[in-house]
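During the no-cost extension, the postdoctoral fellow (Dr. R.K.) reprocessed legacy sequence entries with the updated structure-token encoder. One reprocessed record is reproduced below for audit purposes.
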Amino acid sequence: MKKAISFPIDNFIDFRNKMLNWVQPFNIFCLLDNRQYHFEAPAFECLLAVGCKRMVEASKEDTFESMKSFSKDQNDWVFGHLAYDLKNEISPLSSTNYDGIHFPDAFFFVPEIVLQLTENEVNIFCDTDAAEIFSAIESSAISLEKKLPALLHIQQRISANEYEEVIKKLQQHILRGDCYEINFCQEFFAEAAVIDPLSVYSSLVSISPNPFSALYRLNDKYCICASPERYFKKSGRKIFSQPIKGTAKRNLSNHELDEYSKQRLLNSEKEKSENVMVVDLVRNDLSRVCKSGTVKVDELFGIYSFPQVHQMISTISGDLEDGVDWVDVVKATFPMGSMTGAPKKSVMEIIERYESTKRGLFSGAIGYVNPDGDADFNVVIRSILYNTSTKYLSFQVGSAITFYSNATEEYEECMLKANAMQQVLQKK
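Re-encoded structure tokens follow.
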């Protein structure tokens, strides 16, 4: 792909909306959108990958070797996803639960066009006429058409009572020493669902504008994502991971109560113990691909505020061993510890036994690798998955279960995480 050609823009938000209107006819595209967050460790750039020149998909032989060969051969931008059941190629695991969406376990593509959007300009990478692409986008509508979903009957795969019974069984596993912490998830779904993915994305990120948002289309499958969590970022030989463990509800109408909720999260021994367990797991994972003595915790128990919740986020970094690339990092660390628990292999076996649905792309990752080999991937949470062929719609939420967890409170945390997605899908 040729080097970027830059074009000035007058209004960042207007141009982003124009890009989204322009990209709709393409069968494959991936928008990675930081929603203009500017944390010290920056989130995704605002990137849009469009069209597909070449691709690699999960294979029955060795997906990791296929991804590694594909990435090395390209010397180009690569975008795509990792689904949760890619774990079955890392550990001797299997999955038999129901999957209504059918994302492949992995898919990566070299786009025909990459748009890199900053506050003042757009850089267009392509092999064709960049000026023609810019003109076509500029001619698109500024506003995103808000098409409300048809009336959806959203169902829960398990009831509140069933959820609490499962939590008791999970705590028995912890008591027996099978594991220390389990991230248990439940599904909300709708059948015969008719939605406009762009409108739903626009509504979701308006309500919940999180720094690792994404709108990803792979033919008839969509991921509409408002994630606050980074899986990992590779910058040169440096690797960063930022797991989230610890959630508290916002109270935007009362500053004092909102601050109280924030401090309560910071001082919660339960939430901190969950966070430490995941930090230790991530440190252990990164030590497999990083130089000895370089893995460190840059920030422990950082409290970050998002529209609906305060989150406890820790940052772990390390220096990669020579010869290690982004695929090696995935193989050493996937699935991310914040979405499994500890110890990872034992917990994944327990998850498969007690969850009722395949996670699919949920609790996987979406991201990119640039021509220099740098990469950035999110964690697919707070996301709506939709299959336009089967009209099946799904979103999942979960929380970390420890021996000291209160089942009712964990259920309420799940409902809090589901709120923005339900709000968007059930607007009247």
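The first strand starts at residue 5 and ends at 8. The two ends are 45 Å apart (CA to CA). The remaining legacy entries will be reprocessed before the final report is submitted.
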